[in-house]
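ATP-dependent Clp protease adaptor ClpS, Postechiella marina. Tokens?
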Amino acid sequence: MSTKEKTLEELLLQEEVLTQNEIVLHNDDVNTFDHVIETLIYACEHTPEQAEQCSIIVHHNGKCTVKTGLLDDLKPRCTMLLEAGLSAEIV
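Tokens:
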């Protein structure tokens, strides 16, 4: 096996280890659109337009992935969503 092939194989292995997780926001009958939008802007650093689109998708589809990334980054963000009264989980 050449050095180039070995390096490529190691890189592919590292990419598999660094899998992306997702925060999925679920619809509820309690929170207003404004509250959801404001919380997504704060907790997930969405733009107002992005937060509004996610809130509409959640309303119509029942859920929406609102943030992807490494678990260490997503845990505190998901906690902020939950503390704000939203229904969210990391998958």
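Residues 3-17 form the longest helix (15 residues).
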